[in-house]
Design a protein that fits this description.
It contains nine helices and two strands; from the N terminus they run ααααααββααα. The chain is mainly α and about 300 residues long. The protein has one domain (about 1-305). It has a two-stranded antiparallel ribbon with strand order 1-2. α4 (about 110-130) runs antiparallel to α5, α6 (about 175-200) packs across α8 (about 240-270) and α6 (about 175-200) packs across α9 (about 285-305). The longest helix is centred in the first third of the chain and has 31 residues, at about 1-30. It is globular, with a radius of gyration of 20 Å. The relative contact order is 0.12.
């Protein structure tokens, strides 16, 4: 336990610094591309603030392939065997799709392109199985590949879509880029608050058969911590009051905890402690990104309502 905590305290800040560095690069790239496309009359100045989300897209395209491999390992416990690289390709394709939604020329075909990516992944899995001259487990292979793609790429889509949506309405790092940083900080500080709160005052187990380390007291501490982090970030985001930010933090933090429990359910089914061993103290990539990914569509909805 002490060794795991030491590794978390060591590698946690390192990952946070890398994340902030990529988001700073994301903002830098947006400012450097400002005005690139405004001379085209079809854009009507739509991208006068630059192209948003480059750094976030790069980050997701780095972490999604190893996360897909780890997810496939969990699915294998129930003989659900996705084609890993097809699923990884589909997940990255969905991330690129969300990035492209900021371009007016792409928007008329956005819906059809999204459908094409999903159908392409399904057909690619079917053709890959046919190449083995076998029909057995074809449904398992196709279903596993689609589920992996939608679980990782489909949820990541909302993170990128939220980033590029705000890039056209917010100014500077303290606007659109801060939205993404706020979501990630809220989710991760929920874990921190729940961990230390549970160790200090935790007595009542949340779901002992699924995640014996989690307590109701820890969950309350984690959600309150998330609300506090939301309030700290609020002044940096347009039209987000402290009260709304506190509610936002608690909602997204609570959803993030559901993401943890969802992965715990899959890991218990697969009879493994962690999805991988790539990150000391945390486990695999999937162990790190599961909560933010599940929170992403809810954050997209809440931000759409709270910052109108």
């Amino acid at each position: 336990m002490e060794s795991a905590l030491k590794n978390r305290l060591t590698f946690g800040p390192i990952m946070l610094l890398v994340l902030i560095g990529l988001l700073v690069f994301d903002h830098w790239a947006e400012t450097r591309t400002a005005g690139w496309l405004t001379n085209d009359p079809e854009f009507s100045g739509f991208l006068n603030r630059g192209i948003g989300g480059i750094g976030l897209m790069i980050l997701l395209m780095i972490v999604l392939p190893p996360a897909t491999i780890e997810l496939a390992r969990l699915f294998a416990a129930e003989n659900v065997l996705p084609y890993r690289w097809i699923a990884a390709f589909g997940s990255c394709g969905l991330v690129v799709h969300a990035f492209c939604t900021q371009f007016p020329k792409f928007q008329p075909i956005a819906a059809s392109t999204l459908a094409f990516i999903v159908v392409f992944v399904m057909l690619a899995a079917a053709l890959r199985r046919a190449m083995d001259s076998q029909s057995s487990d074809a449904i398992h292979r196709m279903a596993g590949t689609i589920l992996s793609t939608m679980y990782l790429g489909g949820l990541a889509w909302f993170l990128v879509a939220l980033r590029v949506k705000h890039s056209q309405h917010e100014d500077g790092f303290h606007g659109s880029t801060m939205v993404i940083l706020m979501i990630l900080l809220v989710v991760k500080f929920t874990d921190i608050g729940a961990f230390f709160g549970g160790r200090a005052i935790g007595k009542h187990k949340l779901i002992p058969w699924l995640s014996p380390g989690k307590t109701w007291e820890g969950l309350v501490c984690g959600v309150l911590t998330a609300g506090a982090v939301g309030m700290v970030c609020a002044p940096q985001i347009t039209n987000l009051s402290w009260g709304k930010a506190f509610i936002f933090g608690m909602v997204i933090g609570g959803i993030g905890q559901l993401g943890d429990l969802l992965e715990s359910l899959m890991k218990r089914d697969a009879e493994v402690k962690d999805s991988g061993k790539l990150i000391p103290g945390f486990g695999g990539v999937l162990d790190v990104i599961d909560s933010p990914l599940l929170a992403a569509p809810f954050a997209y909805l809440v931000f759409s309502l709270f910052t109108r």
